[in-house]
Design a protein that fits this description.
An 8-stranded parallel beta barrel has the order 1-2-3-4-5-6-7-10. Strands 8-9 form a two-stranded antiparallel ribbon. Helix 7 packs parallel to helix 10 and helix 8 runs antiparallel to helix 9. The protein is globular. By secondary structure, the chain is of the alpha/beta class. Helix 4 links the parallel strand 3 and strand 4. It contains 11 helices and 10 strands. Keywords: Oxidoreductase.
């Protein structure tokens, strides 16, 4: 099947492409990393969407406290709801009620989650939707995997991943909530562009919030990339790692961002709507880097 619009337009202008591409960016934190930031208002624009990752073993009280704090500081918190770390729909509804009651949460990221074996009866994002617990939410996001996911397709490929996205698209077509796909990070623009174009071919029209790893040491990026199941683009890091002089130097996603921004500028209908940052080298480091890019 041919890929739509998969062509690097070297004639397209780049001035202003990156700042425009970064409008409406989001960032991901965890309670333990957020606790290290005295005041997010010193780092991020007011109203920035901040995802709060719920890692297995994190008490719901810590999650709610972090989300409440972000709300009070003027941000739009989006907590993760990983299906496989919950006992059942009753616990899900309890978590939703806490978030809504204490932090006026109206947005959520629904996903299967890291554990391969569910703690209880819930296993995937669509089961979360089917409980009805998110009725009335303004925005629901789902996980995307530009390089596939071994958790979903253990034998490789992306057959099951694409089937799941089609189910989510059917839901998006019938709900009043704004839906989008937020992706795992990767390190090459070409495969990201090809994947987003393929979604369009498949009739998956939910906008994509593309995942990008923020500035970090090469060793840190490699560690997280392996842990998160990053696919073929990991070779970009492995190639750089062969040069021992670069092991301790921070690696910034500048060129990746420029390529994606240039493609979006040349193809306004291209499916990437926003950038989502994973601050693997630290929240402050990532936020400062973003501010520098916006200044140009």
């Amino acid at each position: 099947m041919a890929l739509l619009n998969f062509r690097r337009d070297t004639s397209a202008p780049t001035n202003g492409a990156v700042p425009a591409f970064l409008e409406g960016f989001s960032m991901e934190v965890m309670p333990r990393t957020a606790a290290k930031i005295p005041d997010f208002r010193e780092l991020l624009p007011a109203g920035t969407r901040v995802y709060v990752a719920h890692i297995e073993g994190t008490p719901i009280e810590e999650m709610v406290a972090t989300v409440k704090r972000l709300r009070e500081e003027g941000f739009e918190p989006m907590p993760h709801f990983p299906a496989r770390i919950m006992r059942d729909a009753l616990q899900l509804r309890d978590w939703v009620a806490r978030y809504k009651g204490e932090a006026d949460v109206k947005q959520a990221l629904l996903l299967g989650g890291g554990p391969t074996t569910p703690v209880g009866t819930l296993d995937n994002a669509m089961q979360l939707v089917e409980t009805g617990a998110f009725a009335g939410f303004e925005r629901l996001h789902f996980a995307g995997h530009p390089e596939g996911s071994r958790d979903i397709d253990p034998k490789g490929g992306d057959k099951m991943v694409m089937q799941a996205l089609h189910m989510k698209q059917r839901f998006a077509d019938t709900t009043d909530a704004d839906c989008a796909i937020v992706t795992q990070f990767a390190f090459e623009a070409g495969p990201m562009i090809a994947w987003v174009n393929r979604l369009a071919e498949e009739g998956i029209t939910m906008p994509v919030h593309i995942g990008i790893a923020g500035p970090a040491k090469l060793q840190t990026l490699i560690k997280y990339a392996i842990a998160c199941g990053v696919g073929p683009s990991l070779k970009v890091l492995q190639k750089r790692a062969k040069d021992v002089t670069k092991l301790l130097a921070p690696l910034e996603p500048t060129e990746l961002l420029k390529e994606l921004a240039k493609h979006k500028a040349a193809n306004p209908a291209f499916g990437i709507e926003a950038v989502h940052f994973f601050p693997l080298g630290g929240i402050k480091t990532n936020a400062t880097w973003i501010a520098d890019q916006v200044k140009g």
